[in-house]
Write a structure and sequence with these properties.
With 739 residues, the chain is an alpha+beta fold. The protein is built from 22 helices and 25 strands. Helix content is 40%, strand content 16%. A hairpin with a 4-residue loop joins strand 12 and strand 13. Helix 6 packs across helix 8 and helix 14 packs across helix 15.
Length: 739
């Protein structure tokens, strides 16, 4: 039915003979009509150059269509006076194609004149209603892969001819957390969809409502009674139809996620990605529009099948129950094991973001779930998130969040099962890395609420919960996990201790706890450096939270912030090479690295530092980790270390050198290769591991993401590397016996 109503909006692409003249890859498709997978669009504004101000120019972050090896394809702009078009070119991608018309940040360049287009101009044009979008390319389905084709007037006309029968003319909150599109003239939910997308979503929504009645009829004809509606616990024909309609509404929502003007095209995997790769609505300049009528990524049928696969995996022998209640006053959790994932302070505006889905679901589900969809939009004022714009000031927003969290955790502490701990999830979405510690306003406020509610924190542990390919994770050292706080209700907390006594307990207990976390002598399941700073807070907070309070020298109570500073300091002291039995060369390299990284520095400064550490520049150079000449000194990056290095023949081997050879070997030969190398210097294992943790912390605080990743990967592979070293060592022993 949808194809009958919408088919004209989604034409096939006819490959003409002229198009094949310069495209050998298209000859097999000559005069054939190909099914379109995606239409590629770019937003446009009038050129700021007076000579071309009558022309709308494109805002494109990259001209690359696909960068798959052997199939590289890109858009080649052809400019003629005040006109431009794009040719699709197959072959090696030139460097300038990678950046399209984009400059830095939200800056672009006019494709006709090169004139800069700054964010201020973009916002002014957009708010004045002068931002549009043009078709720049078409992606079709070919034999064994995608076929990239130039835009045509026919395909652009088909898209813009759509006349939606309904659209969500609901204004969203311009200053909601994570919303970036309001500054560019997009103010209502309908504004983030093309007219073709609106037509398709609205039509499918109406058809879902209509098909519900057909399902009821089929159920009755098969012998079912009509029964009660689903929200009243019914299990007859009506409830069955309403259940299917609910699942279809979910599929429509997933289609909306993949079918809006804020979806990106990914040249690497040749598909569009949904808007909600992260919980925010950022501005997107060029986007892909899926063929919603076909079984492609973003297509409605594809999303129905995706939902069906999920349902097939659900257990059919137990009942799941979901209820909505105020966490601060509910009794649903009484005498039960409680595990909860509360809101993250001021990072995500769940209610505002939910409206994206709500405006589409409500039309289908308001009569099926009347209580859930009783309001025009999602309720927002009671949401426990610190949104300053809704609560007056940043302080008032924090107080609202703090009070709500305390009330919630106090209730959980009272009603939870006494035999089991309460586990609370927290992800560092607002991590602030400073020179001496990793801290977060949200984290501190969160911990304070937990403690003041009457909980004792007995541990903080990382849990693998974040996809490595999510937007936040790609190209950054984002947490590989959420942090789980393990809490128990404190039955008798009336003792106070001094700051000095608290520090004494930290010095006494933290080293053993940290040693366990980083894997102990055998390297068993170590917590990676990216997670250690947060996980290690657990033993420190266990000490802090078991007391009624920690008294400062002036008699005031120590804040959670100050406690975290001391806990972080104890972590730093434990990992710092100066606190261990590290050689002088390593101490020099560590200090020099923290100042210069892999960059050059003056010989005089290096000489002074080397003398202070008990070594010399020449000695460190002889160790093979340093270049010196022309009055300059520079540490060698691990990628420049020799491949034939043997620790058993090296007569000057600082831990610094051993650690970076391990990284080189891991990157070049994998875990087994690194294990073989470690087997030739087993006595250095603990120090290598400790140095890697320390250097990760240095890089994180300096925002050296690429370098930090190398140390994190070494520790993340440590268990496998140690196992490989044992295997390699055993083989060498056997080989020696055979000789």
């Amino acid at each position: 039915m949808a194809k009958n109503e919408l088919g004209a909006l989604y034409p096939k692409y006819k490959v003409s003979g002229d198009l094949c003249k310069n495209r050998a890859d298209l000859i097999a498709y000559r005069d054939r009509e190909l099914k379109v997978v995606v239409w590629l669009w770019a937003r446009t504004v009038k050129s700021p150059n007076p000579a071309f101000n009558h022309v709308h120019v494109p805002l494109i972050k990259s001209f690359i269509l696909t960068n798959k090896k052997g199939r590289e394809t890109y858009l080649k702009p052809v400019v003629n006076g005040d006109e431009y078009r794009f040719e699709v070119t197959v072959g090696s991608i030139p460097p300038d194609a990678k950046t399209g018309t984009k400059s830095t940040g939200a800056n672009f360049n006019c494709i006709l004149s090169g004139t800069p287009i700054d964010p201020k101009y973009l916002k002014e044009e957009a708010k004045a209603g002068r931002m549009g979008f043009n078709l720049i390319g078409v992606v079709a389905e070919g034999k064994g892969g995608k076929v990239y084709l130039p835009a045509t007037a026919e395909h652009e006309k088909a898209a813009i001819s759509a006349m939606p029968s309904w659209s969500p003319q609901v204004e969203f909150f311009q200053k909601a957390l994570g919303f970036r599109v309001g500054a560019y003239g997009l103010t209502e939910w309908k504004d983030i969809f093309t007219s073709r997308q609106l037509s398709s979503l609205a039509t499918i929504s109406r058809l879902i409502c209509e098909i519900k009645e057909k399902i009821v009829e089929d159920g009755l004809s098969s012998g079912l009674t009509a029964g009660e509606p689903l929200h009243k616990g019914g299990d007859g024909a009506l409830a069955y139809a309403e259940a299917l309609s609910t699942y279809l509404a979910f599929a429509l929502d997933r289609s909306a996620d993949f079918n809006n003007s804020l979806t990106g095209w990914r040249p690497g995997n040749e598909k569009i990605m949904g808007l909600f790769n992260r919980q925010a609505i950022p501005m997107v300049w060029d986007f892909g529009e899926a063929n919603m009528l076909e079984n492609v990524v973003g297509g409605f049928i594809t999303n129905v099948e995706y939902q069906a696969k999920c349902i097939r995996k659900l257990p059919g022998n137990s009942e799941g129950v979901a209820q909505q209640a105020d966490a601060a006053s509910q009794s649903l959790s009484k005498s039960k094991v409680i595990s909860t994932d509360p809101p993250y302070y001021d990072n995500i505006g769940y209610a505002d973001l939910s409206d994206f889905f709500y405006v589409w679901q409500r039309g289908i589900l308001k009569n099926i779930w009347p209580e859930v969809f009783s309001t025009m939009t999602v309720p927002k004022m009671e949401e426990l998130v610190a949104t300053p714009i809704r609560h007056g000031t940043k302080l008032e927003a924090e107080q609202f969040f703090m009070e709500g969290m305390k009330n919630t955790f106090r209730n959980l502490a009272e009603i939870s099962h006494s035999a089991f701990p309460v586990t609370i999830y927290y992800a560092f979405k607002q991590s602030e890395t400073k020179d001496q510690s990793t801290s977060s306003t949200g984290w501190e406020t969160f911990l304070e609420a937990v403690i003041k509610a009457g909980f004792e924190i007995t541990g903080t542990w990382p849990m693998r919960s974040e996809q490595s390919t999510r937007m936040r994770g790609v190209g950054s050292n984002a947490l590989a996990s959420s942090i789980v706080l393990v809490c128990r209700k404190h039955s008798d907390r009336n003792e106070h201790i001094s700051r000095r006594e608290f520090q004494r307990e930290l010095r006494s207990n933290m080293p053993e706890a940290l040693e366990t976390m980083i894997g102990g002598a055998s390297g068993q399941s170590p917590i990676t450096p990216v997670d250690l700073a947060q996980a290690a807070i657990g033993p420190g907070m266990a000490i802090f939270s078991k007391y009624e309070g920690i008294l400062e020298s002036d008699g005031s109570l120590m804040s959670v912030h100050d406690a975290l500073v001391l806990i972080n300091r104890s972590i730093t002291e434990y990992l710092n090479p100066d606190s261990g039995n590290f050689d002088a060369d390593t101490l020099f390299c560590d200090d020099w690295f923290s100042q210069y990284g892999w960059s050059q520095g003056d010989f005089g400064d290096a000489n002074t530092l080397a003398q202070a550490k008990g070594t010399s520049v020449e000695g460190v150079k002889n160790a093979g980790v340093l270049e010196s000449g022309g009055g300059k000194v520079q540490l060698l990056k691990w990628s420049k270390y020799p491949n034939d290095w043997d620790p058993q023949t090296d007569n000057r081997m600082p831990i610094w050198e051993a650690c970076h050879h391990m990284i080189r070997e891991l990157n070049q030969q994998g875990e087994y290769g690194a294990g073989k190398l470690l087997a030739r210097m087993p006595d250095r294992s603990e120090q290598i591991r400790q140095l890697a943790y320390h250097l990760y912390t240095v890089c994180e605080r300096k925002s050296w993401a690429e370098d930090a990743r190398a140390y994190n990967e070494l520790i993340g592979s440590w268990h496998a590397v140690v196992a490989a070293s044992h295997e390699a060592g055993h083989r060498e022993e056997q080989f020696g016996l055979e000789l």
